[in-house]
Amino acid sequence: MKLVVVGGGYVGLVSAVCFAKSHVETLVLEKNEARLALLKKGQSPIYEPGLSEALREEILAGHLSFSASYKAAMKGAEAVFIAVGTPALEEDSASQQKNDLDLSQIDAALNSIAENCASSELLVVVKSTVPTGTCQKTQEFLQKKRPEVAFTVLCNPEFLREGTALKDFMNPDRILIGLPVLAPKEKTQIKAFFKQLYREIDPAQQKTLFVSLESAELAKSASNVFLAMKASFINEMADVCEATGADILEVAQAMGQDVRIGPHFLKPGPGIGGACFPKDSRALVATAQANDLRTDLLQAVMSSNKWRQQRLAERISERLGGVLKGKWIGVLGVAFKAGTDDVRDAPALSILPYLLQAGALLQIYDPQAMENAKKTFEKMQILKGKESLLRWMKAPEDVAEQADLILLLTEWGDFEKLSPSLLAQKMRGKKILDYRNCLERAAFEQAGLDVEGLGRGNAAREDEKHAQDRR
Which backbone phi and psi does 113 adopt, to 5 degrees? Predict the structure, then answer.
């Protein structure tokens, strides 16, 4: 069995490496020259724990190779997996309605596949997140482009979490396969192909679900949007906790023990981010609206997230007496979550520009995401005319140097290990805004620092009581 995976990004590279780990001959087709050069050297162009090591192992084992040529790549291929990016359209795009996904990379891949297919039949498997109905349109396009080739378009969406992607792929909750309407014999053959492909991952075939193309496409988007809704809900509950004196950690624990709810995605933070949740929420709204359906709940998720990031940015100003100009703020983390170098739609991209616009001076550290953040800041022109207001630091404790306030945005484990006494010595102020609730408040209080988390209403009242007792 030989597979071609089009796209060497988060989804494509992880999928290719894991297929190779299952002893499947896998070729990654990557058109970006810089990324391709790194891959051929056995270097991952993205940060994902364990990925670089697994990449080198599979290259040495002869299971994994790379190319920029469709013609060379597709020789002898039984299936081509499309795993290219489908970012949100730019807001000024007039080609489709706002909130839709940009499918230009999908279109380019399909054209190249059609032009370079030298076999009489080929499985084309879409792994990229696409709007419902895309796979059917893909089938129609390929049939029209090359009617003499028996193309079969399938949908096999990924459900990987950045930071645990290898583990998620090799130990999935489910393997979802979307099938078109097929004759019984063809359906049996395709099911046999996937059972063979995933034999080491799902040997008992208890996790593999075969559904329609449309159901697979929608299940992927709906899963992400539901998780975004759950995360947004707990963020709003954190606000209620602050107003009423409840503790979000206790509330979330009590909720999570209900089997109907579960404990996952019940940690408050500065808002949802990353390549999937915000984008898929917007795209699902576009799909619903295109079918004249109401999207009240879906739109509420987006507006809640936008409001939260704005509100938490304003809180920083409030804690500094309403004046940000000339204040030094140490920033711990710019990645949208720990375990990745991804800054796409990260809360930092909303909160930090607000601070810079108000004249604050920032000292930033992230163990993996600073290079991507620099590129994104440049692309978004966040630093235009404000270059002197920002410093990129070499160590997490460096952000505390003469800082009036420290802002923790990403829950990296190294931040939890920071020395409270060392930070206290370096800081000019005493305030730390822990927007991930990952610092041990008592230890920092002993060092004379004031740690304020999210949704810790009872903790805030206890602090106030202790202060009154001391007075």
Answer: -60, -45
CATH 3.40.50.720 residue ranges for the chain = 2-173, 269-453
Q: CA 157, 104, 291 angle in degrees (round to 5)?
A: 70
> Any alpha helices (H) in 291-328, and if so which ranges?
296-319
For residue range 365-404, list pLDDT tens digits in order. 999 999 999 999 998 888 888 888 999 999 999 999 999 9
pTM as predicted: 0.89
Assign domain 2-173 to its CATH superfamily: NAD(P)-binding Rossmann-like Domain (3.40.50.720)
Largest CA distance in the chain: 86
Asked: is 269-453 a CATH 1.10.10.10 domain? The reply is: no
Q: How far is CA 73 from CA 108, 110, 273, 441, in A?
A: 16, 14, 34, 55
**pLDDT tens, residue by residue, 105-156:** 999 999 999 999 999 999 999 999 999 999 999 999 999 999 999 999 999 9
Which amino acid is present at 145?
A: K
| Span 186-221, pLDDT tens digits | 999 999 999 999 999 999 989 999 999 999 999 999
DSSP 360-379: -EEEEE-TTTHHHHHHHHHH
The catalytic residue positions are 276
Residues 6+ apart with CB under 8 A from 185: none
3-class DSSP assignment, residue 162: coil
- Give Cα separations from 386 to 327, 353, 357, 361 (angstroms): 14, 10, 8, 9
